[in-house]
Design goal:
It is built from no helices and 3 strands. It is an all-beta fold.
Length: about 50
């Protein structure tokens, strides 16, 4: 079996598959962590479907 999300880490829907970012909230220190969608970050081209 695969490993799940660690305790107190929450995924937030910020439109990653539409060109937004993959976002998580680390509850202990209320830190938001974002990684650009591969629709915009990996290629260097903004292929975002949303503005």
């Amino acid at each position: 079996m695969g490993q799940g999300t660690p305790a107190h880490i929450y995924g937030i829907d910020t439109g990653c598959c539409w060109g937004g970012a993959l976002t998580q909230l680390r509850w202990e220190d209320k830190t938001l962590i974002q990684v650009p969608s591969n629709r915009q970050g990996a290629t260097g081209v903004n292929n975002s479907i949303v503005d």
